[in-house]
Description:
This is BNR repeat-like domain-containing protein. The protein is mainly β. Helix content is about 0%, strand content about 50%.
Amino acid sequence: MKKTSFLGILPFLFLIYGCQSDSPSATSFENPADLNSKFPYLYATNNSLYMSWISSNGDGSHSLNYARYDGGAWDTPQTIARDSSWFVNWADFPSIIADQNGLLAIHMLNKKPGGPYAYDVNIYPFQNGKSRSPLVPHTDSTATEHGFVSMVPWDDDTILAVWLDGRQSANRTEEQYFDLDYAMTLRAAFISTSGEIKDSFLIDDAVCDCCPTSLVKTPEGALVAYRDRTEKEIRDISISRFDGTSWSDPRTIHKDNWNIRACPVNGPALAAQDSLVVLGWYTGADDNPRVQAVLSQDGGNNFQDSRVISDQKAIGRVDATIQNGHIYLSFLENSSDKAVLQIASLDQNSIQSSTVDTLSKSRKTGFPQLEAIEDKLILAWTAVSDTSTSIKTVQVNASHFN
């Protein structure tokens, strides 16, 4: 299943006007994460917001936690598990999903013997508000990397999960790294809230090793975005569609032609509302770092031309959300010794970008999260000091952009 196709783009339907607006009123608000917490993940449903995070316990162990934000307040945080055998990483961190009835699943990564990057995906399904024992969605037993999970609700008792799966790289030598027969793969499975794996799929047999994935559900099915990999080490963003039965052949979303013989650890971000889809990503092609985005009005069947959201100063680490038909991206830019967290609002005719805050450039900052509830944009990230980490949450009035 080597990649040769290029996604056809709709004709140029809009003019691009990029502008920097006044900074929005980004208001910090409290969250229940303790000191030495890190790597938040946000998931919004209806008017509720869920956040998962990792806490360091001081004894070498970590705790996996979550809480719900509703009606302007957080409920009591819950701890799912505590262990010292987890793989805790700035780019590959736990995630959480829910629907209108409540929490559906939360995932984390568990180390296994065999190497520093040997670990399994562990997914905790929730049923009737209670967590079940974790299950491993991949059926191989190789001591290889399995991670960068994305999940979405599929139906009343099923979730769809995708992940990067390193089973082909088992016992790979240094020389074999550039042989795609030993490459990372992208796989998927259905998981019931009762704790069963229903179906498994191979989506792509050669992908970039350690860039985050992104998954959404649309009326036309599911859509996954990820950083692909070709025999010439072109690592651009591809998508695949799931129609309820099978996954489509991978298609390159935009021909950046980024030739890089390593993983940039900088994946794409999808968001969908009805048939409106946005896909944002970072590329370093042509020594011109930039964040780009494409829009689709038909559930991801066709995309409009690529639009540059940020260039020259772009760091990436993109996230995306859609609220009431309004599209928003968050991303990082360089500024001397700091990173600048930006929000951009997109429509058919314009791009409006504003600064939210300055962050540490350290990897400990992780990937800032963006979600929308009611008329607020919510952002969360790991705040880094010389002695500790903490989770910072802020809200921005969406009306700033409208």
